[in-house]
Design goal:
alpha+beta, 5 helices, single chain
Length: about 110
């Protein structure tokens, strides 16, 4: 079983690691696919908040997905098929977002 710690220093370490990983992520490829990984700051307890969301940019036409849940389904399906981009995206979301995605679509 995974040990999920909530000490202040470990939360900061996780936030720092997520920031570095987000910097290296191929955000352009994700946007072309219709979704984004967003750094949404922190939860009230200080844990990093990183979400997978549908991409909305009116300058590029209508969004590919109706809502975030539809984007989640697409990313999970592609991750199960072995797409490195989609697997990496799911690795980057925060623990709470991951639980929500897994509750909706199962593990990948």
């Amino acid at each position: 079983m995974e040990n999920l710690s909530t000490t202040g220093s470990e939360i900061r370490d996780a936030a720092t690691a997520a920031t570095f990983s987000l910097d290296a992520f191929d955000h352009d490829a994700a946007r072309r696919d219709g979704w984004v990984i967003s750094d949404c700051g922190s939860y009230r307890d200080g844990a990093p908040r990183v979400e997978l969301q549908k991409f909305d940019n009116p300058e590029q036409g209508p969004p590919k997905f109706r809502d975030d849940r539809e984007a989640w389904a697409h990313v999970v399906t592609r991750a199960r098929a072995g797409s490195v981009l989609h697997i990496r995206a799911l690795d980057l979301v925060d623990r709470r977002e991951r639980f929500a995605i897994e509750a909706a679509f199962g593990p990948w």
